[in-house]
Amino acid sequence: MTAGLDPALLSRVRELAGRFPTKRAALLPALWEVQKSSGWISPEALSAVAGALDLAPADAAAVASFYFLFARAPGGAKVIDVCDSFVCLANGGAELLDELCSRLGISAGDTTADGRFTVRRQECLAACHQAPAVQVNLEYRGPITSAEALLAELA
Ligand code: FES
Questions:
Q1: Confidence band (pLDDT; 50, 70, 90) for 88?
Q2: Is domain 7-66 in CATH 1.10.10, yes or no?
Q3: What average pLDDT does the structure give for the chain?
Q4: What residues does ligand 1 touch, defined as CB less than 6 Å away?
Q5: Mean pLDDT, range 45-52, rounded to an integer
């Protein structure tokens, strides 16, 4: 076993590497697999992916840190991403983010003390037609206009 990845996930990363003309080209989907599997990309998992793809760990880290939807720290059981870009701001995104944070007693980027929720401010989620756009554990939900209703649904 490669430290940082369970055997099934390591196998999936190697399978992805075989689908692309170069192993490097499989880096984004490999990181996505890790993110989907554990909710975040630990330093150990990042090193394991880099090793499986014959990349320097710094190369993998540079890519993982560039894309904002790759979490580099563990979050709550439900990670709520709220778009903070123009279309969503014009359609109540800022108010929604504020209300979510207020109801949960946290600031954007934080996790509740019980570990149930993380709320993050994000760049455009590519769902502008659903403004204000929200993702919960990377699944689109939207448009969301009521923080109270969203939290009740997720409770
Ligand atoms: S501006 Fe919010 S999803 Fe694009």
A1: very high
A2: yes
A3: 93
A4: 83, 85-88, 124-128, 131, 133
A5: 95
Atom of ligand 1 nearest to the CA of 125: 3
Ligand 1 closest atom vs CA 84:
2
**Could you state, in order of their start, the residue ranges of all structural domains in the chain?**
7-66, 78-154
Long-range contacts formed by 42-51: CB under 8 A, 24+ apart? 42/4, 42/74, 43/4, 44/3, 44/4, 45/4, 45/5, 46/4, 47/3, 47/4, 48/2, 48/3, 48/4, 48/5, 48/10, 48/13, 49/4, 49/5, 49/13, 51/2
Please check whether the two domains, 7-66 and 78-154, share a CATH topology.
no
18 alpha carbon to ligand 1 midpoint, in Å? Answer: 34
Name the residue of 81, 84, 85 whose CB sits within 8 Å of the most ligand 1 atoms, as the mutation to test its pocket.
85
pLDDT of residue 1: 42
State which fold the 78-154 domain adopts.
Glutaredoxin (3.40.30)
